## 1
Amino acid sequence: MSQFILSNPNFAPMVGLVQLNRPKELNALNLELMGQLRDALVEMDENPDIRCIIVTGNERAFAAGADIKQMAGKNAIDMLKIDQFSTWDTIRRVKKPIIAAVSGFALGGGHELCMLCDMIIASETAKFGQPEINIGVMPGAGGTQRMARVVGKVNVMELVLTGKFIDAQRAYELGLVNRVVPVELYLEEATKLATEICQKSPLAVQAAKESILKAYETPLQEGLAFERKNFYMLFATEDQKEGMAAFVEKRKADFKGK
Ligand code: DAK
């Protein structure tokens, strides 16, 4: 089978790198690529030596969307039977933080994949969009829902109904990306962010990620109750003892993830 994903669990200390690797097709997300991406992410999620994951493409494209050539001849029942959602749902359940390092095109499913990640570092050359409307369909992997929660109704309407692309700066203004950096620095910047997070307690990081994601899925009171339980749970960890002792003793904490 072709290798559509390059995976490096030792990219930087405690940081795993997953690279989409269908460059000729601008990393169009065919089923094989998505399956390999899911497997690589699950493997890194289970690897105790990794605390944070970066997903990237190449300079020209993060991913130009789902593979239109693979989808073109399908009918509704074919799509239903393929059940791509189980793959996307598995990625959604990854517990470790995932940072998308994006350069070039992040379109359709490519942009939806970015939004499935937890943070996004964009190069100045990045272009985002949901152009599905141009090929007679609409976003199907969270484009209308996740984007609406970030950019608000009028902006998501314009982007989805026109299919137009926006540049990295506009994406930043809309809150879709954390920051924009020169193209030669986007992976480095993502690695810096990942490395910073790796210094924290991985248990606290994962509990915080889980709680933040709940904010997008629940009413406030339910989310607050969930947050509270995760907060109490962290007092059962050695990392909490270490973190608070380190503060009192005026030294840097050494978190073991226990
Ligand atoms: N699919 C297949 N091939 C693609 C592709 C795509 N999305 N995007 C680009 N390619 C291929 C091109 O066909 C071309 O291949 P050859 O002709 O050389 O064989 C090669 O990549 C280079 O592309 P271009 O020659 O077109 O390059 P340009 O620089 O001229 O244009 C472009 C770049 C990104 C503006 C253009 O390629 C483009 O408009 N691409 C399509 C963008 C698009 O419409 N994306 C949305 C696709 S629909 C779901 C999950 C996800 C989805 C749905 C459901 N479930 C979980 C159920 C997602 C749907 C979508 O993303």
Note: The mean pLDDT is 97.
## 2
Amino acid sequence: MRKNDFLISVVVPCYNEEKNIPLMIDELQKHLRAYRYEVILVDDGSSDDSSDLCERLYGEITEVNYIRFARNFGHQAALQAGITCANGEAVVTIDADLQQPPSVIPAMVKCWLDGHEIVEAIPEYTDSIGWFKKYTSYIFYWVLNKLSDYPVVKKANDFRLIDRKVADEVGRLKENHLYLRGFFSWVGFNKGFVHYDHKKRINGETHYPFYKMVRLALNGITSMSVRPLRLALILGSIVSLIAFAIICWALYLAVFTERTIAGWTSTIVSTLFLAGIQLLVLGIMGEYLGKLFIENKQRPNYIIRDKCIRNTVKDIEHSTSKTTLIEQGV
Ligand code: UDP
Ligand code: MG
């Protein structure tokens, strides 16, 4: 394929990124000059000027398109919406804050042209994120990969290129609580990798403080695997066995000996221990039950307030096939 034989879609989720969006567009223009491309800015219910900025940039730059959500639905939903509306033969997802440099995209495109249907860009962290985030992220991937049947690429952070075939599968996803990193490990296809230096955020703050990271991690684990339920069962069984042995011992002492257990400590320790285990198991079950409850409502993952996506290859193909059907009298 020659450089102009295909269209590249670049999906950029934006949540309060008014200062970063223009810089991002400049960078994309600089590095994608040699290609035919479209940019899809997905405004995820921003409260700053990002929303108006998307509209303004759409008016000024032919490559820029936008989707605006009715409220904040989260990063994963924004990615899904952008991928679903993208027209390109290859779709790149990249954060708006320039921590993932657009200069890497040509290397990703090359890897795709070499036959990889999913190209993951793997960050090398120097001082771009704090040690706490770095190490908790390592621990999370380690736990996730121990629990999941489909290993997730370590350090993957949603900077990737996917082929049209894969993008179409994202459009078919019905599940709420989407965890795209898990989905891309499950979906199969041929994977390639490029590495890049992860940069510091230029403007603004991360939207993923610790509690949101924990939420994403829990979602990742529970949407990828039911092994925690099995672990809960094993843990419950082991603790029940131990408790049974202690009961037998206590009964033996009470019936056959003069010694009775006079310890408050042993009573309180075992009670708290058992209560703790029970709550843990109940919590794990509750997590899955809550998910079932939400999934059962079958609400969409996001609501689009408005979108402006220019007609490109895909739309032209659609309208051609419609015309053909009309001409044939269908
Ligand atoms: N983002 C979003 N919706 C949200 C939170 C974040 O669309 O609810 C976007 C954000 O604008 C950025 C990307 O997702 O483009 C990654 O967010 P952030 O940089 O805050 O995450 P971090 O890099 O710190 O993990
Ligand atoms: Mg970031």
Note: Residues 7-225+300-325 form a domain with the Spore Coat Polysaccharide Biosynthesis Protein SpsA; Chain A fold (CATH 3.90.550.10).
